[in-house]
Amino acid sequence: MQLAIDIGNTYIKAGLFSEDKLLGTIRFVAGEEMDFLNFIAGKKINYTIFSSVESSEAEAVIGLLKDTKIIQLDHNTPLPLINNYLSPETLGKDRLAGAIGAWVMLGGKSVLVIDAGTCIKYDFVDESQGYMGGSISPGLQMRLDAMHHFTARLPSFTLKRTTDFYGNDTFSAMMTGVVTGAVGECSHFIQVFKKRFGKFNVILTGGNADFLSLQLDNKYLVEPNLILTGLNSILNFNKNNDK
Asked: Which residues of the chain are modeled with pLDDT < 70?
């Protein structure tokens, strides 16, 4: 068995794999490492790969693992596709893993990944050239929080679905502004990439992927475990090259 761990801004996600087959997943926050230990209890894990945006949380989780070969995804890690990003050392490894996961899932076809998490990240993989890069914008809840934080009177709200594109009170005005704005942003990015690269696939992932997909005109594939799948694909690539 092998383990893929994605340590993000909000949650830590782990997936247990047998080669390419996902056997199970867990999502937890810092301080809930006992849940992770219960998840891997009794499992013989030969290889582990992880990516992290927070080094202290990575140390806490990785320090719990025993008798497993560990790979940390960084800008020097060999990849199954070409990374065309001009500053690979600054590229978020979750972005790279998600793009690779989508590319592998689709059998090497071009794809735009929309990761709707703490931030909304857009990452494009071309059919022939590899990972091209993308964009980052504030996530849905972050937009609500910013309006509350940077104004004197706008209240704090938790993200909820809207039934219209405009609001008739402060709550609905803020909510429709955030949701309709984000949906318009996603649609615009899809069209811009189509003008540049032609036909491609779109996959959504991240904590707000289902929420966002319901608002979009087209029904795109939602894959909640895309980053874990990508991490596992990178692990398999490195493991096979070591043989």
From this structure: 243
